[in-house]
Specification:
By secondary structure, this protein is an alpha+beta fold. It contains 11 helices and 18 strands. The chain has one domain. Strands 1, 2, 3, 13, 14, 15, 16, 17 and 18 form a 9-stranded antiparallel β-sheet that branches. Helix 4 packs antiparallel against helix 6. The longest helix has 19 residues. It is globular, with a radius of gyration of 19 Å.
Length: 352
């Protein structure tokens, strides 16, 4: 992709920070699209994982009867590509997995690079996977992103070419499976949630009531006044965005930057938002830090991050399936995104 730096910089310039929203240990800074961006026709039409599975247009299975821990097979019947967000969980088959990166799955068959988040099971519970109602918590996503980044950086440039077979490109997006299992085990222990199979899904199930309370706290505001109160906690139905036109969010835990997730489609971000929010909430249910940390102003921090990211030169490689995978690194952050035909589709950013 030509001019990746300018594509990323222009896309970040289309995002507008809104008033922060706070509840408990979490603070969310909604990001909306500027009016011209909202009305600009998108070059890329796609649906999300859960919608595609529910409609019977996407089937995700083991790659074979024997299976392979780091790979799954997706069959997309179309007519649109399917975007699977980084860290989304797939439930069932021989063991639960999470996505190693954001993938735009084209029509036909594709191989998906994944990580196991259920160490103690290797037996079929279903022929195909179901979509989980969450993404993995930010710490796991950050560590996995760093692992994938190292795997990609170790490859010669020629191995990032889009002309390579899709299954070969998928093999480049590798995680450290042992490290992933360690983080799942650590997180479950911290949450005091047991699991016979070491499943991350059991941590969500075990703390479901707490999670849904936190999700409800960041649902739609009852009024514009409530949404505009920086210290307020807007309430409403779970699964709704708190600010109209929201296409991303910067997340702060105990006043410290935790992550940033965006889709350059407010409609699609609204669909993925509940899953992301459950991941943020699960992180917030861990024990607070023993030392007091200095809080930062969310909007000031996000504008600083945008400036850093805009000045960086992304590492470009062919995506797992469609599009171009971008990895951007600054002195304070690690970011991973997906672009197609000169347009940013998605970006996630974590602290170093």
């Amino acid at each position: 992709m030509e001019h990746a730096s300018s594509v990323l910089s222009e896309a970040l310039g289309d995002l507008k920070p809104e008033a922060p929203l706070a509840s408990g240990r979490l603070t969310l800074l909604p990001l909306t699209l500027l009016p011209l961006t909202r009305t600009r026709p998108s070059k890329t039409r796609y649906v999300l994982l859960a919608t595609a599975i529910e409609r019977g247009r996407l089937t995700v299975t083991e790659v074979s009867d024997g299976g392979s821990v780091p790979y799954l097979k997706a069959t997309n019947k179309g007519p649109w590509p399917v975007l699977i967000f980084d860290g989304e969980e797939l439930i069932g088959a021989k063991q639960n997995r999470i996505m190693n990166t954001t993938i735009l799955v084209g029509v036909g068959e594709s191989i998906l690079p994944v990580s196991c988040v259920e160490q103690g099971r290797w037996s079929a519970r279903s022929s195909a996977f179901a979509a989980g109602d969450w993404t993995s918590h930010p710490r796991l996503r950050r560590e996995k992103e760093s692992q994938v980044r190292c795997a990609l950086a170790s490859l010669p440039d020629a191995l990032g070419a889009p002309e390579l077979p899709q299954e070969v490109r998928a093999s480049h997006f590798r995680s450290d499976q042992g490290a992933v299992w360690q983080e799942v085990e650590r997180h479950s222990r911290e949450l005091k949630v047991g699991s016979e199979t070491g499943a991350m899904a059991d941590a969500y199930a075990g703390r479901a009531q707490d999670l849904e309370s936190m999700v409800a706290a960041f649902g739609p505001a009852r009024s514009d006044a409530v949404a505009g109160e920086a210290a307020g906690a807007p309430t409403g139905a779970p699964g709704e965005v708190p600010v109209k036109g929201m296409a991303g969010v910067a997340v702060f835990l105990d006043g410290v930057f935790l992550c940033l997730d965006t889709l350059w489609s407010a409609r699609r971000f609204r669909e993925i938002y509940p899953k992301l929010l459950r991941g943020y909430a699960l992180e917030a249910l861990q024990a607070p830090p023993t030392k007091k940390v200095t809080s930062i102003d969310p909007e000031t921090e996000v504008l600083r991050l945008f400036a850093e990211l805009s000045a960086a030169t992304p590492l470009e490689r062919a995506g797992v399936d469609l599009g171009t995978d971008l990895r951007v690194e600054t002195k304070t952050t690690l970011g991973a995104g997906l672009a197609l035909e000169g347009d940013m589709l998605q970006l996630s950013v974590f602290p170093r």
